[in-house]
């Protein structure tokens, strides 16, 4: 009964109090189609979160999805529309704003449909899905990757001038490398192998699978943890990456309880609405802390530009047309050098920003915008449907992996749950490259369990 009451209170806060709080910070008095569409996104995602908060199951992958929708596509867009103010310069007609909201709602509808279909698909093919669970972490391979990761990381650190440079602001650290490609390769080698090693060790320890050489593995894990704190710090790396490292480790370690869903939802809401927008202040010199109303922060801070970038993508498509998958091919073949593919597309965020005349082009491109720029409304329907299928299958596999310890899914699910904020915000070129790199290095520590 207590859990039901807490979920009810959460519903009231998410669907009524928070929107009203933001509305009260503006002078907007008219309730029109735009506000109705926007409120529908807020209310629907708020109700979904409230339902998840009452569940006994570990729904962390769905929780982070709906947190992103509620905060970035719900509250942030609500603030921007009410104040008629956006993080980047731009003017948008009512028709464009309404169309952007419809794109979001259409994507959510087909995401849910895909999730329903994914559940049926998993149940009907559960036997063929066992390969995800039968791929398990090898302690020996984990140590080997860790040793390799230490040496590679130390080489990168030495080549960039020593440990002190690990605490430079991100842009200064990037300037230490001659080209962007050099920076990306070195950053991957510096951070990901040792991060994958840490998560693999945590899974092994949590599930009590270290039977031999316990003290060696314990000391090795402590050293790996300290090394991760040094090299994956939030000063030199994007907050999304630091958040993925920190949150995925916590999700692996903490045992899921009856109240965990409610606690995690409250934690994410506080983190993404209150803490996140101010977490960048310490990264720049001489930046003064300025506490502002939530509506103002969400309409001025570039971290909440997801809705505006959907609107910008609509403008881009009006001018240039859809890419018919060209942007998606650029994502899939991110690893191919431009020397071999001179016309390889840039990230969708940068492509849209350049076309619309932005001087700063390192902008996001949320999953809905990526779908639309590639295939229009058909892309939104198809890609969000497939994403719903994927998330459901990953979720179901994770539920089963809780009884089959140290499997592939027991690594991928908590990591992707934490990483999903970055993945959904985009752009897809960067988020996909990070994701594939993590999966590649994790594949080096798995083995097939004999059944």
TrEMBL record:
Keywords: Membrane, Transmembrane, Transmembrane helix
Keyword hit for Transmembrane: yes
Superkingdom as given in the UniProt entry: Bacteria
Record bears the keyword S-adenosyl-L-methionine: no
TM spans (from-to): 7-24, 30-47, 59-79, 99-119, 131-157, 184-205, 214-231, 237-254, 261-279, 372-394, 406-422, 428-446
Protein name (database record): Oligosaccharide repeat unit polymerase
Source organism of this protein record: Fictibacillus phosphorivorans
Lineage: Bacteria, Bacillati, Bacillota, Bacilli, Bacillales
């Amino acid at each position: 009964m207590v859990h039901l009451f807490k979920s009810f209170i959460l519903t009231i806060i998410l669907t009524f109090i928070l929107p009203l709080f933001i509305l009260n910070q503006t002078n907007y008095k008219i309730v029109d189609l735009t506000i109705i569409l926007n409120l529908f996104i807020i209310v629907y995602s708020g109700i979904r979160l409230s339902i998840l908060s009452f569940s006994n199951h570990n729904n962390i992958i769905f929780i982070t999805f709906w947190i992103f929708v509620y905060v970035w596509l719900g509250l942030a867009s609500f603030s921007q529309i009410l104040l008629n103010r956006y993080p980047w310069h731009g003017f948008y007609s009512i028709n464009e704003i309404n169309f952007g909201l419809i794109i979001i709602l259409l994507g959510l509808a087909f995401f849910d449909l895909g999730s329903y279909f994914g559940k049926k698909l998993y149940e009907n093919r559960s036997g063929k899905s066992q390969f995800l669970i039968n791929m398990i972490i090898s302690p020996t391979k984990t140590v080997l990757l860790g040793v390799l990761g230490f040496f590679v990381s130390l080489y990168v650190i030495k080549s960039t001038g020593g440990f002190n440079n690990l605490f430079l602001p991100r842009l200064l650290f990037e300037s230490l490398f001659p080209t962007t490609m050099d920076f990306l390769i070195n950053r991957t080698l510096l951070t990901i192998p040792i991060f994958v090693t840490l998560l693999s060790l945590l899974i092994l320890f949590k599930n009590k699978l270290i039977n031999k050489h316990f003290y060696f593995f314990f000391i090795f894990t402590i050293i790996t943890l300290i090394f991760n704190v040094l090299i994956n710090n939030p000063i030199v790396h994007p907050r999304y990456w630091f958040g993925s490292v920190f949150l995925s480790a916590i999700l692996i370690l903490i045992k899921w309880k009856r109240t965990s869903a409610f606690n995690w939802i409250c934690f994410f809401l506080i983190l993404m609405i209150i803490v996140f927008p101010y977490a960048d202040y310490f990264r720049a010199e001489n930046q003064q802390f300025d506490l502002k109303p939530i509506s103002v922060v969400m309409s001025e801070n570039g971290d909440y530009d997801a809705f505006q970038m959907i609107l910008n993508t609509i403008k881009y498509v009006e001018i240039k047309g859809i890419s018919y998958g060209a942007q998606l091919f650029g994502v899939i073949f991110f690893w191919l050098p431009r020397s071999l593919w001179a016309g390889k597309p840039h990230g969708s965020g940068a492509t849209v920003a350049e076309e619309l005349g932005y001087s700063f082009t390192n902008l996001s491109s949320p999953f809905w915008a990526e779908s639309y720029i590639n295939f229009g409304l058909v892309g939104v329907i198809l890609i969000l449907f497939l994403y719903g299928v994927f998330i459901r299958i990953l979720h179901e596999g994770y539920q089963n992996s809780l009884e089959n310890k140290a499997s592939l899914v027991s690594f991928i699910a908590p990591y992707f749950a934490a990483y999903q904020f970055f993945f959904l915000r985009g752009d897809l070129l960067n988020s996909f490259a990070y994701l594939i790199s993590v999966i590649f290095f994790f594949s080096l520590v798995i083995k097939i369990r004999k059944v």
